[in-house]
From TrEMBL:
Family designation: Belongs to the IMPACT family.
InterPro entries: Impact, Impact_N, Impact_N_sf, Ribosomal_Su5_D2-typ_SF, UPF0029_Impact_CS
Signal peptide as annotated in the record: none
Source organism phylogeny: Bacteria, Thermotogati, Thermotogota, Thermotogae, Thermotogales
Species this protein is from: Fervidobacterium thailandense
Name of the featured protein: Impact N-terminal domain-containing protein
Gene Ontology BP term (one): regulation of translational initiation
Pfam family, one: Impact_N
Record PROSITE patterns: UPF0029
Length: 202
């Protein structure tokens, strides 16, 4: 999956709304991996274990593409998880997980009412995260390690500075310097011994 940049959340945000006496608490969090998302969902479900429902959804960018998950968690089929996921899709958010916790207030909302309530809960928490400046853009970059012999070291470091790369770390052994860099485009140099694709804040 070739994703150049994407929107995500920094940290975690919670927002509560009331609809027909039911309380809906939406918690939106950054999640780097599928496992992070599941850990977050489990944590929120434990935090609100006395709730009527804890409905999750997430979208994670992996090397094989975008992994999506949602669950109605006991609500009628199709009324919670997919509507929540659709908001994340519409907002173009990736590496995010959301749980909407519902405390039933005694008034049944019906199928359409539930779809609207769960959608609105996620819309509200995303809007609130935007207000707080926590919706950010991440762009693709390359983390690379170069192995440079000492006779070439000075000249090579000058070249890297001229290219505008960000030097993260330098270590040495008897014969070589190992330089870790972060670049916008992958360096095609004979000294490169490791390359990893990463996403950094724009």
């Amino acid at each position: 999956m070739d994703v150049e940049r994407f929107k995500t959340i920094e940290g975690r945000v919670e927002r509560t709304i009331k609809i027909e006496r039911s309380e809906f608490i939406a918690t939106l969090s950054y999640a780097e991996t599928d496992e992070d998302a599941r850990t977050f969902i489990s944590e929120i479900s434990k935090k609100y274990k006395d709730a009527t429902h804890n409905c999750p959804a997430y979208r994670i960018l992996t090397v094989n593409g975008i992994v999506e998950f949602s669950s109605d968690a006991g609500e009628p089929s199709g009324t919670a998880g997919v509507p929540m996921l659709n908001v994340l899709r519409r907002e173009g958010l990736l590496n995010v997980a959301v749980v909407v916790t519902r405390y039933f207030g005694g008034v049944k909302l019906g199928i359409r009412g539930l779809i609207e309530a769960y959608s609105r809960s996620v819309e509200e928490v995303v809007r609130y995260a935007k207000e707080l400046g926590q919706i950010i853009v991440k762009k693709r970059a390359y983390k690379q390690k170069l192995k440079i012999d000492f006779p070439s070291y000075g000249k090579k470091m000058q070249q890297l500075a001229y290219m505008g790369v960000n030097i993260l770390d330098i270590s040495y052994d008897e014969h070589y310097a190992y330089v870790e860099v972060l670049t916008e485009s992958s360096l095609d140099l004979p000294e490169v011994i490791e390359t990893a694709e990463v996403y950094v804040r724009e």
